[in-house]
Structure formats: C-alpha cells, structure tokens
Amino acid sequence: xxxxxxxxxxxxxxxxxxxxxxxxxxxxxxxxxxxxxxxxxxxxxxxxxxxxxxxxxxxxxxxxxxxxxxxxxxxxxxxxxxxxxxxxxxxxxxxxxxxxxxxxxxxxxxxxxxxxxxxxxxxxxxxxxxxxxxxxxxxxxxxxxxxxxxxxxxxxxxxxxxxxxxxxxxxxxxxxxxxxxxxxxxxxxxxxxxxxxxxxxxxxxxxxxxxxxxxxxxxxxxxxxxxxxxxxxxxxxxxxxxxxxxxxxxxxxxxxxxxxxxxxxxxxxxxxxxxxxxxxxxxxxxxxxxxxxxxxxxxxxxxx
Length: 304
Hints:
Blueprint: H1 6-16, E1 19-24, H2 29-40, E2 44-50, H3 52-62, E3 69-72, H4 76-88, E4 93-97, H5 102-110, E5 123-129, E6 137-140, H6 150-166, E7 173-177, H7 188-201, E8 209-214, H8 216-220, H9 222-227, E9 240-242, H10 246-258, E10 263-269, E11 275-276, H11 284-302
Parallel strand pairs: 1-2, 1-4, 2-3, 4-11, 6-9, 7-8, 7-9
Antiparallel strand pairs: 5-6, 5-10
C-alpha cells in the first residue's frame, strides 16, 4: 500500500477505529489540543493521567467531552508510571507524553514493573511528506540513539520494519545511508551497512529489500546511480532511510522541514506499544500526524 500523504494516514487510522490514547501528566493544554484534534478526527479516545484538578477545567478550554476519563495522580513522575501501566493492558493503545520531563517519561517506558519493555532498544521513526514526492518517506534514527553500534542498528531495524509493514508497506525498500558506496574500515558506517545488508540476505529482518552502503544521491536518484555506474533496485523508491547517527538524522529531518517544507510526524518504537513524545516546538499538525502514525502502527500490529 502506497501512503502518499498524511491525509491518507489519517483516513486509514479513522477506518481502523479509535485507539486508546493514554496521556502521562495530561495537565498540558497544548497536549490536550492535540488529543482533541485526534478525538474529533475519530482517531483516538483519551485516558488522561495527571492532576485532575488541573485537567478538568482544561477539558472545557480545549473542547474535550467533560466525561473524558481522568486518572488522578498529582505527582508527574508517578503519573508517567501509572500511564505506562495502563497502556500495557490495552490491546491497541498509545502512550503520549504530557507535562512531564522527557527523562521521567522515558524512565516510565523502561520501568520493568510497567511492562512496556521488550528487551529492544527504544528508537525513533520519523515520517515526512515532502512536496513533489509520490509517497511518505521514513527515517531512523534521528531522535533517540546518538551513535548506534551495529547490534543497536540491527535492533532499530527489528522495530522499524514491522512498523512499516503495519502501515501496509509489505516489503520496505531500505537504504543504509553512508557518505559513499565503498566499504572502508576508516568509515565504520560503511562496514556496518555491509553487515546489515548481509543480515537481510540471511532473512534476519523478514521481507525487506535493503541496500548499503549507499549515499543519499544514489538512494534518491536513479540518474545518480547510473552516473556512478551503480545498479540499484531501490534508487528513487526508498521507503526507509537509516542514518548512521543522530546528527545526520537530526540535520536531515530539519532540512526537510525547513528547506523542503515537508510535513512531519514521529513515533518511538521498541516498546510493546507505540509512544508519542512530541516537542512543544512541533506544529499542531505535526502533533496530530504523530498521533495518527502511532494509531496506524498500533492497529496494524494488532492485525486490524
């Protein structure tokens, strides 16, 4: 299935039916506005964990139903733990960060007593709708892991590829990005790329077409591949770009947003349920896109 725009992602999430969205420390008006947009769009129903005395009046301000479920917990760190425990019991649920700092929020995701840990590395999957492109493209990992090792890159792919399949991309085209296509021990990313491609040939990632080491120009342009004398089955048709480290991913994502005017979304994977941890700097559209992305992954992994 080819997802061309975030509107199509929204439609798919709506068709799957509302997913339970559990917000940790939900006494955050901006987070609740994103929840309201998801509720109005038929994407999600909310469970709000946090200080009920602060949340209840905010429901009126943002326009959420007054009977929206609230779980009272005034301590924000405890609210994160309680929210994580609640989402674990849901067949298809999403955990979302509210007014709690990122370290406390992620500590709750990783707390073994909350039950969201899978033994895999947490990682970030970003989606972009680039004007002029025929489909959404995905990048990992520009948000969580600074300089992943080969084993950690494998872990990241073991989380992101099933998520893409849950979105309907049955056999994702994956580019393991490096500065060039030559394996060079002085450039460890190229050695890792070669190793990951070999793992894929052995079937360790399931159904996927993976190439690397591959430079961005070849990944994007069949003409560039031809000019370099390279044969590529994925050039111009990449679904997932895997960057060598967080700096490359962060720069690439911001360049797409600010230079190419791309729309964006992001979700954290590697836990039993998708996690949404948006930034206050994110636009309202990006927050809603992120919830829709998480909804589709949650429903798709459940088999809906």
